[in-house]
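INTERNAL TRANSFER SHEET
From: sequence group
To: structure group
Subject: Nitrogen regulatory protein P-II

Please process the attached sequence and return the structure record in the designated field. Keep the field labels unchanged so the import script can parse them.
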Amino acid sequence: MKYRKFNAIISSLNLEKVESALRDLMVSGISITQVQGYGEYHDFYKPDMMCSHARIEIFCHKFEAEAIAQCIMDAAHIGQPGDGILPFFQSRQCFASALKAKLPLMRVQQALKFIRMISSAMTLGWQGELT
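Return from structure group:
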C-alpha cells in the first residue's frame, strides 16, 4: 500500500478555513506548526522579508490524497501570491510506534473506517456506548 504525506504551507490567515474544511472531509489527523519564511510572497517591510505561514502535515492513503489536496487548495485559495504550496510525498510503509510494528493495510483501513464512523456519529449528536 502506498501512503502520501502532505506538507502544505499556507497563509496563516487561511488556517481556520482550511482546518474546518479538513474536518468536514473527516480527515483523521493533522499536525499544524507555525513557520516563518518567504517564497512567492515576500514581506518587503521587514529586513529579512519573512512572513508567517502555517505548515499542515497529513499522512493518508493514496486513494484519499487527491480529495485532501483539492480540499486544501479550495479552502486556502484567494488568488494572491503566497496562497500556499502543497507538495506531497510517497511512502510505501507506515509504522505505529505504539505497536512497535509496521501497520498492515487492512488494519489501517479498519482504523480509518472506525474513526470516520465515530466522527460522523458525534457530528450527528450520538452519545451511545461503543460495543
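Handover comment: The radius of gyration is 17 Å. Residues 105-123 form the longest helix (19 residues).
Transfer complete.
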